[in-house]
Write a structure and sequence with these properties.
Layout lengths: L2 H16 L4 H11 L6 H22 L1 H13 L5 H28 L6 H20 L9 H13 L7 H11 L4 H26 L9 H27 L3 H21 L1
Length: 265
Amino acid sequence: MNALEAIILGIIQGLTEFLPVSSSGHLEIGKALMGDNSLPEESMLFTVILHFATALSTIIIFRKDILEIIKGLLKLDLKNPEFKFSVRIIISMLPAVFVGLFFEKYLEEFFGGKLLFVGLMLIITALLLYFADKSKRTVIGITNKSSFIIGISQAIAMLPGISRSGSTIATSVLLGVDRVKAARFSFLMVVPLIFGKILKDVFSGDLDYSNASSAPILLGFLAAFFAGLFACKWMIRIVKNSKLKYFSYYCIIAGLFSIIFSLAT
């Protein structure tokens, strides 16, 4: 992987991690189009680095919220709003943790250039976004029950082509949650999972550092980080203004392209 490819993939990850179009799906498409011939271990290392970059951008944007979550957990007061929110973040993580621990090997089979599957999942993402965009606006907050249901959406979004932010925000909105609260919750709930996954991958011994080229990795990291800062702020405005349907149209186009490309190659 050269420097230009690393930057392109970094920008794709940074934008699509927050925009509701599936970062994993777009990385698979990007690697396929650029003829990524790296070994699975090398490709995995680069993907981990990109996810670390977008996690850092989330922390920068929501640093005050994250501090409130930490303070809330330390208070151990069931009536405290910050504590309740922190508990709901933990509840939302449970389905993804369960799937990651017991079904990770099965999930890996859906990666590695399976663009037909990616295309089909992108179309499912499109349908979710379209119906969420049409739903009525409410001012309802996150509850324990809705946290778990949103967490199930996040677990399903571990499949390439299902947008994590798109599915969790769409599920929240369809459950009647306020759109801005839904976006905030969606972005915050993934931060512990990303860092947990990174630590697991680092200590698993599956990452290949021997042939890693530092320059492309650094460029990819920076591209993903700054693109993530931009996309995170942009996405909050988009959800607030109810413009998810445009991403629905995009996901249909991207999904059909992936399917056609897969069948033609």
